[in-house]
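Researcher: Please predict.
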Amino acid sequence: MSTEEERFLADYSPAEYSSVALTVDLVVFAVTGSTLHAALVRRGGHPFRGALALPGGFVQPDEDALHAAWRELEEETGLDLRAHRAHVEQLATYSSPERDPRMRVVSVAHLALLATDGRTLPDLDPGSDAASAHWHPVHEVLASEDLAFDHRDILADAVERLAGKIEYTLTAAKLVPEEFALYQLRHVYEAVWNTDKLDAGNFTRKLTGALTDTGRKITRSKGAPAAVFTVRNEYLSPPMTRPAAVTNR
């Protein structure tokens, strides 16, 4: 460090600038049947007391945003992503000056995809900051619920991010076990795109080129045993096409 830079830092006064708090919010998606669910909490305190919200909270001075996201999720829902097959990526930064009535707060939102067998979801256990924590059908929430802060916008953005990515990648496979049947993967597409119009035969023809057949089969409660696949190629060519645009705004 140069002497000039040392003098600059010695004279620098952070108090001359407006302070901004940093938070994290998490959109955690999981699928059962053909329904996309999100982990939401019921706020136990003000502001927006009693409102549905995404799990999240303030970033502590000794942690980065990603570590804060994992910590807040476990504190508010009891969900430890390290105990599950999960994919986490940063979604976007939300910085509207009016998004929090307490002060200027910037939030780094993360999208988490939690793999399930398509039948059950992990139990959620609310922490001290939340009155309750439950899985909620995403498209129903977006159609009828008001969420705290700008969390409805964040949730809608997460749906659109995922809905777009599964057109040209096999990101949908992050919501099923590492080895899966095609019907499980098709249910994920139907859940994210909020449709029941995906033809099983056409879906199979479009997807199998990006998959590896393990040679094993799994039994089902109805129908013949289903072949088990793994992902061979992350990208789909040609891409899948949504039956209709998902609109949640």
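Model: The beta strands are 21-32, 35-43, 52-53, 56-58, 86-94, 105-114, 130-137, 180-181, 211-218, 226-231.
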